[in-house]
Specification:
Layout lengths: L1 H14 L2 H22 L9 E16 L4 E12 L3 E13 L4 E10 L4 E12 L4 E13 L7 E12 L4 E13 L5
Antiparallel strand pairs: 1-2, 1-8, 2-3, 3-4, 4-5, 5-6, 6-7, 7-8
Length: 184
Amino acid sequence: MTNRFDELTKSLVQSVTRRGALKQFCAGLAGLALALTCLAPSAVQAESDVPFRATWESQISIAPLAPPLFAVSGLGAGKALHLGAMTAQSITEVVNLATGEGAASYRFTAANGDDVFLTFVFLAIPTSPTAFAIEGVWQVTGGTGRFEGASGSGTYLGQAEFVGPVDAIGTFILEGTVSSPNQL
């Protein structure tokens, strides 16, 4: 079974041009965003938008999927408005190292255990052989506790520096707005 999957993956990778892969990737991301928007609970409306800002440092590791695609795993800590001290953990994250394009879903957890779930679409731009500047957009897809039914969006910037073949350290700043029916 694994060999059949590997053969299928190799044939797909060889049969798709970079431009075609980019179109498929963007179409998939657009479909995911549309699906998340349609599936979000519409009965719960947010009271008002408030500023949301987070800064965090993260330990990052990568693992090859079907090159140039790599799975990324990140775990870090920082601070955020309405969360205070928080942890940031990737749930899923994939980056195309040939184009720098990527998508991720993350969980930000406050000290009291409340979670905010976010999706990211980003571009990693090489600034040296081992470093990348990262810029992108994010959207809140839900949460727990006082963030249940939350929504919001914004932009983010970051840097990642590889400190080994598969390990990096990153720093990130996220800005935008968030709303919640549970009074932040």
